Amino acid sequence: MYLIELTVAREDNIEAAQIRKNERYENLIREREEAGWSVKHFPVEVGCRSFVWNRLRSWLFAISFCHR
């Protein structure tokens, strides 16, 4: 299961947003894994001035989507 959470934040708040999103879904992820699911969580952050954080690239590679 891929859990993708899009966050649009100011560039100086992206790391704080990342922490909030990880904490928000921590219990859900643990419950699904205990039920036998394989869970990948990708909080995707985009800055309000269009800066795209590295996690988007990680998610795209995880689903086998590449630049080609």
Structural features, described:
The relative contact order is 0.25. Strands 1-2 form a two-stranded parallel sheet. It is of the alpha+beta class. The longest helix is centred in the middle third of the chain and has 21 residues, at 14-34. The protein has helices spanning 14-34, 54-62, and strands at 2-9, 40-47. The protein has one domain (2-62). The protein is 44% helix and 24% strand. The chain starts with a strand and ends in a 6-residue tail after the last helix.
Entry keywords:
alpha+beta; 2 helices; 68 residues; two-stranded parallel sheet; 24% strand
User: What is the N-to-C order of secondary-structure elements (H for helix, E for strand)?
Assistant: EHEH
Global structural class: alpha+beta
Strand order of the largest sheet: 1-2
How many individual helices?
Answer: 2
Approximate shape: flat
Average of per-residue pLDDT values:
82
Task: Quote the distance from N terminus to C terminus.
Answer: 25 Å
How many distinct beta strands?
2
- Rg over alpha carbons: 13 Å
Q: Largest beta sheet, briefly?
A: 2 strands, parallel
Poorly predicted runs: none
Strand content: 15-25%
Number of domain modules: 1
Percentage of residues assigned to helices: 40-55%
How is the topology of this model organized?
Elements: E1 2-9, H1 14-34, E2 40-47, H2 54-62
Parallel strand pairs: 1-2
Summarize the structure.
The protein contains two helices and two strands; from the N terminus they run E-H-E-H.
